Amino acid sequence: MAVTARHAPPAKAGGAPPSRSTPSGNPRRRAARRRRLIALVFLFPALLLLGALVAYPIVFSVGRSLFDASGDRFVGVDNYSEMFSDPATLTAIRNTAIWVVVAPMLLTGLGLVLAVLTEKVRWATAFKLLIFMPMAISFLAAGIIFRVVYEQDPERGVLNAVAVGVHDAFKEGSAYPDARARLGQGLDPRGDGSYRTGPNLAPGRTVSLGLVGVPPKDIPAEARPAAKAASASAAAHELRGVVYVDFTPGGGGRPGRVDPKEKGLPGLTVEAVREGKVTARSTTAADGSFRFSGLSPGSGYALQLPRKNFAKPYTGIAWLGPALVTPAIIAAYMWIWTGFAMVLIGAGLAALPRETLEAARVDGASEWQIFRRITVPLLGPVLGVVFVTLVINVMKVFDLVYIIAPGPVQQDANVLAMQMWLVSFGGGNNQGLGSAIGVLLLLLVAPAMFLNIRRFRRSQS
Question: What are the transmembrane regions (predicted)?
Answer without folding.
Answer: 37-59, 97-117, 129-150, 332-353, 374-392, 432-453
